[in-house]
Write the structure tokens for this entry.
Amino acid sequence: MKPTPFDYTAPRTVAEAVALLADPTREAKIVAGGQSLIPMLNMRLARPELLVDITRIPALAQLVVDTTGALRIGAAVRQARAAADPAVRDGWPLLAAAVAHIGHPQIRARGTVCGSLAHHDPAAELPTAARALDARFVITGPQGSRTVSAEDFFVSTFSTAVGDDELLTEVIVPPAPGPQGWAFEELTRRHGDFATIGVAVLLTRDAVTGTVSTARAVFSGAGPVPVRLTAAEDALVGTPADEEALTDARHAVLTGLRPSDDVHASAAHRRETAAHLFVRACSTAWERC
């Protein structure tokens, strides 16, 4: 199929883009990488009257580490660029690993980091990584800009805190509090598919006791939003991440995760796989500590 007719424009400033989105006389959609939007247009699941191309707005092309040590990724930054950036690979390796799991090189070369986050498929990698990394989202609309936490940004499947007349202009990833071990694991039917289930893990080690001082575990494909499982985290904190601790943490995943059945996998299969991937990710993250 082909999309319904639409107009196209490429504004040069964020203010121009927001004004176009806020125009009540016609429906407008943002396009940057188009890896989610174009298939929806072709299948006529989306029928905007205007496409607003934000890739020619210089302010949205920034990929920088600011004076606070936080990583700032503009809405026009391609996934491949973010994953290849030395600062990202050194300071936020979990983010680079998540990007590496997205589709294929052609998709990552066109798709944007913020585009995947704003689209919010709960089986996608970047929402899970953003939740694990405590990312913050800068949303700009007719009334100005506001910053939203990852916990509040993801509302439900394909739904975020971004309003119809607003634009996600950048995502801000805070620096790690110290040396961290990390791992990103997922199960897919074929390479490049969305994950049946996935998990992002971050661990820090107490230099004195040699035990886990902080833990973060976030699952993709386990609900309508990225699912953080604090029970599994609590089972690891204060332990040497040994077999006993991992057994307790695995049990917390099996009892605490509530995925659903669908055509791709049963809830039971997802839960068992999530527990297995979680233990593997914890072992890898602990070694990287």
Notes: The two ends are 50 Å apart (CA to CA). The chain has twelve helices and 14 strands. The chain has a mean pLDDT of 95. Residues 62-173 form a domain with the Uridine Diphospho-n-acetylenolpyruvylglucosamine Reductase; domain 3 fold (CATH 3.30.465.10).
